[in-house]
Every structure is written in C-alpha cells, then in structure tokens.
Amino acid sequence: MATITRYAYERITAGEMMPGVIEVSTDARIGQVIDDILLLIDCCFDGELAGQIYYLPF
Known about the structure:
Blueprint lengths: L2 H11 L7 E4 L5 H14 L9 E4 L2
Parallel strand pairs: 1-2
C-alpha cells in the first residue's frame, strides 16, 4: 500500500480529519486520469471528498 494511502487510512480509523486522497495508478493513461479527476470534481460538493480515498482510473 502506498505511503500516503496508508496514513490516510490510519487517520480515518482514528477519527482524525483527512481532506481526501486521490491515488493514481502508475500505469494509468494520463488522459483518462484527467477525465476521471474532472468527473469527480464536477460530481462532488465542497468538502464532500473529506475522509475519502479514491483510486483512479475508475
């Protein structure tokens, strides 16, 4: 598990604030990742990503 993701899960488990993490696969196509990030941003309200971990591409 990637370092930042591990720490994010630790913070969530401990009930601590975590603004949200987007993890991108190293072999993902950049165009698909950009499209997925834009979709994620368009579909979420302010603060809705807090405490969440998303893996891209979808």
